[in-house]
């Protein structure tokens, strides 16, 4: 395979894997009822995912901190409404969801 074809192939795989990651994040958020209180770009009960991503942009500890908040619940950061704990979410699914949230623009 020549260099041009290899580059196009690598780009295609990268785009497809990015699409899969985004689709997986949204699907898992829907499956775990996250969208009952959150949306991608509008505040509902909790903040929008875009607002969360903006708030934690560049924060190296955001993934682990937000995973702990999803699992254990939390409050006080976005107003008076606390987020209930969600210990039933599989840790790998939770990581996919939170990683996806943090990539919103």
Automatic annotation (TrEMBL):
Q: Which residues form the signal peptide?
A: 1-22
> Which species expresses this protein natively?
Iodobacter violaceini
Is the Protein biosynthesis keyword given for this protein? no
Name the source's superkingdom.
Answer: Bacteria
Identify this protein by name.
C-type cytochrome
Keywords associated with the record: Electron transport, Heme, Iron, Metal-binding, Signal, Transport
- Cytochrome c domain residues: 20-105
Q: Which PROSITE patterns match?
A: CYTC (PS51007)
**Which Pfam families does this one have?**
Cytochrom_C
Gene3D superfamilies xrefs: Cytochrome c-like domain (1.10.760.10)
């Amino acid at each position: 395979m020549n260099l041009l074809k290899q580059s196009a192939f690598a780009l295609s795989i990268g785009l497809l894997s990015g699409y899969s990651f985004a689709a997986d994040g949204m699907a898992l958020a829907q499956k775990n009822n996250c969208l009952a209180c959150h949306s991608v770009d509008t505040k509902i009960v909790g903040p929008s995912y875009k607002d969360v991503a903006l708030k934690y942009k560049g924060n190296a500890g955001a993934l682990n901190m937000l995973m702990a908040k999803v699992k254990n619940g939390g409050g006080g950061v976005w107003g008076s409404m606390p987020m209930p704990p969600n210990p039933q979410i599989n840790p790998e699914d939770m990581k996919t969801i939170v990683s996806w949230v943090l990539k919103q623009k």
